[in-house]
C-alpha cells in the first residue's frame, strides 16, 4: 500500500515542484532580459528596429535556450556595438544568470534547449575498447572534414569568410559550447540539427577535436596551422625574400671589392 501510494503521488509532486522551479527561473531570466537585452531584442524577444528601420537585434522567439547559453556564455552577448560579427570576450553574467536567461528565451517558443552534460561529454570513450575508440574518433574526423573544414580549417584554427566575417578557432573552446554551436548555427554557421548530425555523431566530432588539440607539431613550427596559404606566405616573404636580400648583399660587397682592386 505504501509503495502504491508513493508511485501514485510522488511523481506528480516532483513534476509540480519542477514546474514551480522552472517558473521562478523564467521569471528571474525575464528580469535580467528586460535590463540587459530588451533594448535590442524587444521587451518580449520579438526583435527591435532603430529609428531608421535598421535591425538592432533579431527576434529570439524560437531560437531556444542553447543559443542564449552559447552567445552569453562565450561573451559574444551583450554586444559592445552592432557589427558584422560579435567576437568572444569576457562573460558579463554568471552561470546562474545565464541559465535564467536561457530558460526565459526557451519559454518564448520551441527551439534547441541547453544540452545536458551527457549530450556533449566524451567520457563514454573510456568504456570502449581501443579499436572502438579509434573507430569513433575516425568517424568524428570524417564528419569534421566533410562539414567543418571549409570554414574552420582542417586544423580547427578558423579562417576568413565572405563579407567581412570569419570562422573563429575552435581550439580551446569547451565541448558544451561547440555542441551548442552545432545545434544553433551562430552567425554565418550552418545549423547541424540532430537530423543532420545525430547526437552520437556530434560527440564523435568532439572526441576528434580533443585528440586534434593533443597532437604534437611533428613538423616543428605550426605557422599558425592555417594550411598551404599561410605556409606559402611564409615561404614568399621570409624564404624567397631572405634569398633576394642575401643576393643583393653579396652583389653589393662584390662591387665594392672590385672597385677597391681597380683603385689600387
Automatic annotation (TrEMBL):
Alphabetized UniProt keyword annotations: Cell membrane, Electron transport, Heme, Iron, Membrane, Metal-binding, Repeat, Respiratory chain, Translocase, Transmembrane, Transmembrane helix, Transport
Domain Cytochrome c: 24-109, 135-213
Pfam families xref list: Cytochrom_C, Cytochrome_CBB3
First and last residue of the signal peptide: none
Catalytic activity entry: a quinol + 2 Fe(III)-[cytochrome c](out) = a quinone + 2 Fe(II)-[cytochrome c](out) + 2 H(+)(out)
Compartments where located: Cell membrane
The UniProt record lists the keyword Cell membrane: yes
Membrane topology: Multi-pass membrane protein
Gene3D superfamilies, sorted: Cytochrome c-like domain
SUPFAM superfamilies: Cytochrome c
Domain of life: Bacteria
Transmembrane regions: 233-252
Keyword Cell membrane included in the entry's annotation: yes
UniProt main location, coarse: membrane
Catalytic activity, EC: 7.1.1.8
Summary of subunit composition and partner proteins: The cytochrome bc1 complex is composed of a cytochrome b (QcrB), the Rieske iron-sulfur protein (QcrA) and a diheme cytochrome c (QcrC) subunit.
Name of the protein described by the UniProt record: Cytochrome bc1 complex cytochrome c subunit
